[in-house]
Amino acid sequence: MDTIAVLDFGGQYSHLIGRRIREQGIYARVLSSETSLDDLKRIEDLKGIILSGGAASVYSENSPKPDPEILNTGYPVLGICYGHQLIAELSGGEVKEGDIGEYGTSTLKLGEESGELLDGLENSEEVWMNHRDRVTEMPGEFSVLASTKSSPIAAFSNEEARLYGVQFHPEVTHTEKGGKILKNFAANISEARAEWNPKGLATDLVERTENYIGDRKAIIGLSGGVDSTTAARIAGRAIGDNLSAIYVDTGLMRRGETESIKSTFSNSDLNLRVLNREELFLDKLSGVADPEEKRKIIGNTFIDVFTEAAESIGAEVLIQGTIYSDVIESGSTTHSDTIKSHHNVGGLPEKVDLDIYEPLADFYKDEVRQIAGEMGLPDAIIHRHVFPGPGLAIRIVGEVTPDRVEIVREASHIVEEELKTAGLYQEVWMAFAVLLPIKSVGVQGDLRSYKYPVALRIVESEDAMTANFSRVPYDLLESISTKISNRIEAVNRVVYDISNKPPATMEWE
Asked: What's the CA gap between 407 and 400, in Å, rounded?
């Protein structure tokens, strides 16, 4: 299968590059920046190489660098942000720190010759920047293709050597023609054929799981979301009765979650065990306010519970529904920064006595949903809103207490129910309430009140790698606000979060 290799230099959007390439039907593999040239050449049907962004500066002593010969292989190479600067430096150009940073949307001005990379773009385009360093000088054989106010060399190319670079990020949705640029590189310049489709992979995933686990017993943490349920269905078909599905009621679940799980899976072919561990989790979180500490406590406690369950049935393998975006944000590569630890990735203790298997770790959310459909899962699960593994603990800014859990649980339930009533539930990626650790003055029943504010978070996304806040109607927001403040005695104010990702994340913690 024709392949585009993406070398990950620690950028938070490195895998999003691969996602955007796959979106066009072209297969992309995301590899470590330390991948050797020989290993790259061993990739069958390799057509092009992309160097991702990253947090380092190319002129720093310990910054990640590829084998310089990558630029001389004959494969087309595209550098994005840090990768753009790498190509410049390795080719004899100059990269310096700018006087000011360039973050967010910028206007890209195309030069007289925009080349094949920027073919199809207008003379002026909106692009998304995330840098302070910039290319200040290029070797003579390179041509400047475009510029912004702060980056005179915002895009360049050496057509003869098949080297290309862009300072901005074409992979994020805020770059309006980003998909066109990536298609120009992958399909036109690299001549990669569109042969990738996650549909039809279900059988292969079952076979891989069966081969990996063999005749060992396994458990899977089941939450009712599409990721864990799809992983469970794959594992169930692979190893049958040797799989036990464990649902842990942490006391941090959505309203009615435990009852729904029992109803949905009690009559299925899964061996379902429901464990009530509310007191355990809430005791562990008592007095803890730091979001990373909360995530790690939850991750460790899950492992303790799963280990105990595994020992009781003689299981050796823990299956998880980890997907690509979980791995990315948890700082999975050598040079990447940790945005937040996911309870099933970065939140795990260093030593786990179970063999962890993640059948979906190479797939993005929309690809998982396609696989789920192929596995015959119902639409109610496939299109259910995403719910974080740590549950409501990370939708409470600050300390987690039983009272605060109940506030955010009821508020989030109101948000979802109102969206369903308005026919907008499946139009958005996720919708929930966040409880803030402050109080504000209000007036209720002609009396002064001093109560909590709740923030609403409703976002639209394709794969959770980037997201935009949803422009839901004002009358719907008003209805949600009214019901929250009327029904929840501890709340007197509701605000709406209009932050996109980036710069924000999906969750507040």
From this structure: 11
**Neighbour count for residue 302 (Cβ, 10 Å):** 24
The predicted pLDDT at position 183 comes to 97
Amino acid at 268: S
Catalytic residue among 23, 102, 125, 171, which?
171
- Hey, what CATH topology would domain 202-382 get? Rossmann fold (3.40.50)
Closest CA to 318 of 333, 308, 332: 308
Tokens of 363: 């797939």
Chain mean position to CA 255: 25
Q: Which residues contact 384 (CB under 8 A, 6 or more apart)?
A: 224, 225, 226
81 catalytic? Reply is yes
Return the bridge partners of 46, or none: 3
- Confidence band (pLDDT; 50, 70, 90) for 329? very low
Distance separating alpha carbons of residues 488 and 260, to the nearest angstrom: 23
Catalytic residue (choose from 169, 174, 335, 342)? 169
Distance between CA atoms of residues 463 and 465, nearest Å: 5
Task: With beta carbons less than 8 A apart as the criterion, state whether 9 and 53 touch.
Answer: yes
Q: In b/e form, how buried is each residue of 102-124, taking b as 16+ CB within 10 angstroms?
A: beeebebebbeebbebbeebeee
- Fold identical between 3-189 and 202-382? yes
Q: Is the dihedral of CA 213, 214, 216, 221 positive or negative?
A: positive
Tell me the one-letter amino acid at 144: V
Helix axes 365-374, 202-213, angle to 10 degrees: 90
Does the domain at 394-496 match CATH 3.30.300.10? Answer given as yes
> At the topology level of CATH, where does 3-189 sit?
Rossmann fold (3.40.50)
Helix count and strand count (H, E) for the chain: 14, 19
User: Please, which residues have CB within 8 angstroms of residue 420's CB and are 6 or more apart in sequence?
Assistant: none
Nearest partner of 367 among 200, 149, 204, 143, judged by Cα: 200
Is omega for the bond preceding 453 within 30 degrees of 0, making it cis? no
pTM (two decimals): 0.73
Contact (CB, 8 A) for 233 and 227? no
Give the separation between CA 439 and CA 450, rounded to whole angstroms.
6
Query: CA-CA distance, 28 to 20, in Å (whole number)?
Result: 9
The arithmetic mean of pLDDT across residues 314-326, rounded, is: 85
The three-class DSSP label of residue 4 is strand
The confidence band for 352, taking pLDDT boundaries of 50, 70 and 90, is low
Catalytic residue among 23, 81, 102, 367: 81
In the three-class reduction of DSSP (H, G, I as helix; E, B as strand; rest coil), residue 374 is classed as: helix
- Segments making up each domain of the chain, as ranges: 3-189, 202-382, 394-496
